[in-house]
């Protein structure tokens, strides 16, 4: 596992920077907290965005194949118009009657299986996961949480404590148990479900033996921080059943895979044929405007709501609801998930062609428009694979294309373009990857 919390980042002195950017970094370092990081060895400086593109002060365009937050593209005019129109009328909280809040809640819940029929709004995905854990712990009377061993679920104290991805300096809760995914463990697909179920059962046994009990299995249904381990579909089902049998709830973190990113489904958990007890939403819900939610079964939601207080002034505010409503309208009207599915097929086919021509691509995993692309060869040491992935990411940045890395070794490219991606963008990206692989010396003789 990489010990660097953010390998794809700027380090002072690593690269020569133009005076304009160097001066801005110096000012930034003089006022912002030390936890802030900049992407890329040579940080990018953007002034505006439009659709699939971001633009620097000199007008150079960068193709964005990384940002999943603006899932409908940067500065979508319809979304921005809805946001501005509501801001010009009223910004109010959920303690006042407002029909659009109810309208949107009904529309959102209708996209889920019928068992998931209640929603509570939040401002961020971190707040959503924090609230979901509170609900699970109250309803079950237990404290234990099971997560994958490189999971990331947010930044609040409660969810940081269940996020191994944040590094050794962020202490995990003693009530957390981590499970290994079958993919990174090298388990064949035919044995993946049994392997995952066995991992979960072992975690349950340990939690029960220590008197902690199981409150929840919390998973990102595309396992994005673990390296995008999406297959085989359904491999988590036995683990889900085991947690329920032990009295725990099942929480699907849909902050990254949700809202159609997986293409074939609106929600990532649907690929696995399971229905969670709670589902957490965030980032893409407002195309960048801060709004999130927890959607769940009414029994758990009502039990929590009638016995515990959850007051979040800004959550579900009228501007956020108007923005999210516009996002959902566009997703459904313009068949955005279907486009994600089609473009995912095109991108995968192109990457598979490149993998036959260039030894630098070791494996490709995806669901819709979320890809993990392993770099390096089987014979390379983990450090060499990680270094190669960083070289590719930074060379693409220099070529005007944005991606990042993921996985425990940070040797997989994380590719997740806005869902409005078209064939021309896929082809531009593939051409850039091909140029970069040749440039860094991985072309076959």
Automatic annotation (TrEMBL):
InterPro entries reported in the protein's UniProt record: Aminotrans_3, Aminotrans_3_PPA_site, PyrdxlP-dep_Trfase, PyrdxlP-dep_Trfase_major, PyrdxlP-dep_Trfase_small
PROSITE patterns documented for this protein: AA_TRANSFER_CLASS_3 (PS00600)
Molecular function per GO: pyridoxal phosphate binding; transaminase activity
Domain of life from the UniProt record: Bacteria
Cofactor: pyridoxal 5'-phosphate
Keyword Transferase in annotation: yes
Listed Pfam families: Aminotran_3
Keywords, sorted A to Z: Aminotransferase, Plasmid, Pyridoxal phosphate, Transferase
PANTHER family in the record: ALANINE--GLYOXYLATE AMINOTRANSFERASE 2-LIKE, PTHR45688
Annotated family: Belongs to the class-III pyridoxal-phosphate-dependent aminotransferase family.
Protein name per its UniProtKB record: Aspartate aminotransferase family protein
């Amino acid at each position: 596992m990489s010990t660097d919390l953010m390998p794809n980042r700027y380090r002072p002195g690593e690269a020569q920077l133009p005076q304009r950017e160097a001066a801005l970094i110096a000012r930034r370092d003089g006022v912002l907290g030390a936890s802030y990081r900049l992407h890329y060895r040579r940080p990018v400086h953007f002034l505006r965005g439009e659709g699939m593109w971001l633009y620097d002060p000199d007008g150079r365009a960068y193709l964005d194949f990384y940002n999943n937050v603006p899932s409908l593209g940067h500065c979508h005019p319809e979304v921005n118009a809805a946001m501005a129109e509501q801001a010009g009328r009223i910004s109010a909280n959920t303690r006042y009657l407002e029909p659009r809040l109810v309208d949107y809640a009904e529309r959102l819940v209708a996209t889920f299986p019928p068992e998931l029929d209640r929603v509570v709004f939040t401002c961020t995905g971190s707040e959503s996961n924090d609230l979901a854990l509170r609900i699970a712990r109250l309803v079950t009377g237990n404290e234990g949480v099971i997560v994958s061993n490189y999971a990331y679920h947010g930044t609040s104290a409660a969810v940081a404590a269940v996020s191994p991805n944040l590094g050794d300096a962020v202490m995990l809760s003693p009530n957390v148990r981590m499970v290994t995914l079958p993919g990174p463990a090298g388990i064949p697909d035919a044995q993946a479900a049994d392997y995952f179920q066995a991992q979960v059962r072992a975690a349950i046994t340990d939690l029960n033996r220590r008197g902690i009990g199981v409150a929840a299995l919390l998973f990102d249904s595309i396992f994005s921080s673990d390296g995008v381990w999406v297959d085989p579909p359904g491999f988590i089902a036995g683990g889900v059943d085991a947690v329920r049998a032990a009295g725990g709830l099942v929480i699907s973190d849909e902050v990254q895979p949700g809202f159609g990113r997986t293409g074939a489904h609106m929600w990532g958990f649907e690929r696995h044929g399971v229905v969670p007890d709670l589902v957490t939403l965030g980032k893409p819900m407002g195309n960048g405007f801060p709004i999130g939610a927890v959607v769940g079964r009414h029994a758990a939601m009502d039990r929590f709501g009638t016995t515990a207080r959850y007051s979040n002034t800004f959550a579900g505010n009228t501007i956020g609801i108007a923005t999210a409503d516009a996002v959902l309208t566009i997703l459904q009207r313009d068949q955005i998930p279907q486009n994600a599915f089609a473009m995912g097929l095109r991108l995968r086919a192109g990457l598979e062609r490149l993998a036959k021509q260039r030894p630098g691509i070791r494996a490709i995993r995806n669901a819709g428009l979320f890809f993990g692309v392993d770099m390096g060869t089987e014979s390379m040491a983990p450090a060499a694979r990680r270094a190669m992935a960083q070289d590719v990411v930074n060379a693409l940045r220099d070529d005007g294309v944005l991606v990042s890395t993921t996985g425990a070794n940070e040797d997989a490219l994380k590719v997740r373009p806005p869902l409005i991606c078209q064939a021309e963008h896929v082809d531009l990206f593939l051409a850039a990857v091909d140029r970069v692989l040749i440039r860094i010396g991985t072309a076959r003789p």
